[in-house]
Structure formats: C-alpha cells, structure tokens
C-alpha cells in the first residue's frame, strides 16, 4: 500500500511540475520603478509563475508553465510596458512616456538606426 501511495504521489508531482521551466531574458531598464514594471508585465502573461528582474545584470528570471506560455508573448508584454528585450524593442512612443529615471541606454537601437538591411552605414553612402 505504501508503494502505491508513493508512486501515486510521484506521478502526480511529475504531472504538476513536468511543464515547469525556468529561463532568463535580457531586459533593459534603469531603476527600481523599472523592476516593478518589468516584473508586473511578465507576470501578466498567463502561466508565468515567477518573474524577478536584476538591475545589475538586466536579466529577467522567469518560471513558467511551458504548456501555457509562449516566451514571445512575454517579450511583447515587457516591450509594451516600455522596455526593450533581446528580441522585441519597445516602441519609441511608449519608451518616451516612461518617467525620466527609467530612460535606459538603447545601444542596439542606435546601431539599427545607422545601418540598413545591407549592413552599410547610412553615413557611408
């Protein structure tokens, strides 16, 4: 009987946690207000169980149910809140609406603006 109970508990835990994953996403921000905004945006995606953004590393650590979460949706939600990720840029309009203390450097965007699809600098033509 103990064996059956143990096996039942084991299989139930596998079902409950089998789709539970952890990952990190690069998200740009500048302060504690950014941290709150980024974490809330990520947690608004159904299936995200935990979101913790680190100001020093600019990494958002996520725990989520892979059956319910498409990570692209997390990237989009965070960008919609005004923060660039390693996959999706926030719109200039939303970024400009952030409080001044939340304006972070956007080096990748500057590089994208200076080159076209061929990789040539707009100034070298």
Strands, count: 3
Helix content: 40-55%
**CATH fold title of the domain at 19-105:** Alpha-Beta Plaits
The main β sheet shows up as: 3 strands, antiparallel
Q: How far is the first residue's CA from the last residue's CA?
A: 79 Å
Based on CA atoms alone, the radius of gyration comes out at: 20 Å
Q: In the CATH hierarchy, what is the class of the domain at 19-105?
A: Alpha Beta
Q: What are the salient characteristics of this protein?
A:
single chain, 125 residues, alpha+beta, Alpha-Beta Plaits, 3-stranded antiparallel β-sheet, 17% strand, disordered C terminus
Write up this protein.
The protein has 125 residues and is of the alpha+beta class. It has a domain at 19-105: Alpha-Beta Plaits. It has 5 helices and 3 strands, in the order αβαββααα. A hairpin with a 4-residue loop joins β2 (48-54) and β3. α2 (32-43) crosses α3 (71-80). Residues 115-125 have low confidence and may be disordered.
Fold blueprint:
Elements (H helix, E strand, L loop, with lengths): L1 H16 L2 E7 L5 H12 L4 E7 L4 E7 L5 H10 L11 H6 L9 H8 L11
Antiparallel strand pairs: 1-3, 2-3
Helix pairs in contact: 2-3
Summarize this entry quickly:
With 125 residues, this protein is of the alpha+beta class. The chain contains 5 helices and 3 strands. The protein has a 3-stranded antiparallel β-sheet, covered by helices on one side.
């Amino acid at each position: 009987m103990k064996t059956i109970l143990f096996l039942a508990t084991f299989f139930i835990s596998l079902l409950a946690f089998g789709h539970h994953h952890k990952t990190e996403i690069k998200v740009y921000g500048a302060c504690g207000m950014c941290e709150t905004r980024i974490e809330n945006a990520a947690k608004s995606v159904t299936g995200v169980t935990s979101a913790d953004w680190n100001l020093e590393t600019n990494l958002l650590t996520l725990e989520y149910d892979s059956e319910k979460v498409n990570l692209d949706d997390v990237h989009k939600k965070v960008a919609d809140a005004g923060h660039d990720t390693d996959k999706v840029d926030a719109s200039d309009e939303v970024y400009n609406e952030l409080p001044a203390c939340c304006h972070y450097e956007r080096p990748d965007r500057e590089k994208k603006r200076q080159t076209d699809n061929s990789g040539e600098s707009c100034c070298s033509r």
